[in-house]
Amino acid sequence: MQLAGMTSRPGCVHVVGAGLAGLSAAVALADRGVRVVLSEAARQAGGRCRSYHDGQLGMVIDNGNHLVLSGNPAVGRYLRAIGAEDRIMGPATAAFPFFDVAARRTWTLRPNDGLLPWWILDAKRRVPATRPSDYLAIASLIRRHPGRRIDEVLPCRGVLWEKFLRPLLVSVLNTPPEDASADLAGAVMRETFAKGGRSIQPRVATPSLAAAFVDPALQHLARSGADVRLGRRLAALKLKDGKVAGLAFADGEEELGPHDRIILAVPPWTAQELLPGLVAPDAFCAIVNAHFKSVPPAGTPLITGLIGGTAEWVFAFDDRLSVTVSAADRLIDTDTQALADLLWQDVAAVHDLPRTTPPCRIVKEKRATFAATPAQEVRRPASATRWSNLFLAGDWTATGLPATIEGALRSGERAAALVSS
């Protein structure tokens, strides 16, 4: 029976949330010929991976700087599916330039391509002032350590820690690494450095996050006949007899047919509002990004790691220089201009530029990702729920990875697979 004012879409999958998890699920389902309705509360898709024209700078910028790696399998599958493989760029080999702020010294980490990590035997390829034996720490981290913090697995001191592992792990986990989950850190290391240099070539979206990950997906969905509805907020789920019986959107309600399914790909706090009793991450860490209207000097590397600075990475785009500060809760309340001046000192030092701060846009995300601690890891729910036609997607679900683009895309694939099973 159809209720007055409601519509029914038998055999339809409603994907709620058009961040990368929701887009991944929608693309996977549409490619299988499933009827998809993708609803997003915001007026643009992409979630935290969004781009927009900034009037202050007079250019398109991303809300944040996101790095993926050549060996990220879900990233590769997703970009191939939406025809956007050419929208990410990076060096042809695994090379990671670093700048030591205190020592005013530049050096480059160069892992070799093969599985056998002979690069640690070459002083010109490894971190300066480290010994090959120091890298046993990475081997320790690669093993599984459920429920343990990194500081319970590694000593968290020494040259390798300060000049490589700590800045790498704080970026990957967006959590002070001493407090973070060793299991999540190990999962990343098993999928990257343990597989050799071919898997860890850095890649950045070009010319923007939206151009690489969002716009081609929306175009692909349109060609596939999916119904994409932006600016459509889900206010409530109608739960009955162990199923979702209807969806109450701000613009009206929809009754679900017996074969309809729902993938909820929203932030964890939104999911908890919609689903009483849902256990999900409830502690979060901030990220601060700064975009400077300054054309990089000729020959500037795509990314440069910072040792001893406020930021961890400096990104060089065609028309701007950008920095990212992970686990940045300490900076959230800092005055915007003071923060821009502070971060520009890092950029100026790295690239030998004038110290006067150019026009800048600061982007603060207070709840950028869940805190990647053992306590929060156990709160991550599976994709399947106790409601038979409802599934979850998002980098905060139990992907086995930290909150990354790779994890978000995998969660969408997983939810789509469960819907289709």
Structure, described:
47% of the residues are buried. The protein has 421 residues and is α/β, with parallel strands linked by helices. It has helices at 20-30, 73-82, 136-142, 159-173, 182-191, 209-223, 268-274, 336-351, 374-377, 405-420, and strands at residues 12-16, 35-40, 51-54, 59-62, 67-69, 88-89, 96-100, 105-109, 202-205, 227-230, 234-240, 243-249, 252-255, 261-264, 284-292, 303-307, 313-316, 321-325, 360-370, 390-392. Helices cover 26% and strands 24% of the residues. The strands form five sheets. It has a seven-stranded mixed beta sheet with strand order 8-7-16-17-18-15-19, sandwiched between helices. The chain has a five-stranded parallel beta sheet with strand order 10-2-1-14-20, with helices on one face. The protein has a three-stranded antiparallel beta sheet with strand order 5-9-6. The chain is built from ten helices and 20 strands. Among the domains are: 12-49 and 209-282 and 374-420, FAD/NAD(P)-binding domain; 96-200, no CATH class. It is globular. α1 links the parallel β1 and β2 (35-40).
Summarize the structure.
The chain has 421 residues and is of the alpha/beta class.
Task: Give me the strand/helix succession.
Answer: EHEEEEHEEEHHHEHEEEEEHEEEEHEHEH
Please write the CATH class name of the domain at 12-49 and 209-282 and 374-420: Alpha Beta
Q: Walk across the major sheet and give the strand order.
A: 8-7-16-17-18-15-19
Enumerate the spans where pLDDT stays under 50 for 5 or more consecutive residues.
Answer: 1-10
First-residue to last-residue Cα separation: 27 Å
Residue-averaged pLDDT, rounded?
95
User: Helical proportion?
Assistant: 25-40%
Main pleated-sheet profile: 7 strands, mixed
Number of helix segments?
10
- Within the CATH hierarchy, at the fold level, what is the topology of the domain at 12-49 and 209-282 and 374-420? FAD/NAD(P)-binding domain
CATH architecture of the domain at 12-49 and 209-282 and 374-420: 3-Layer(bba) Sandwich
Total number of beta strands: 20
Please state the structural category. alpha/beta
Assigned CATH superfamily of the domain at 12-49 and 209-282 and 374-420: FAD/NAD(P)-binding domain
Rg from Cα = 22 Å
**Strand composition percent:** 15-25%
Shape: globular
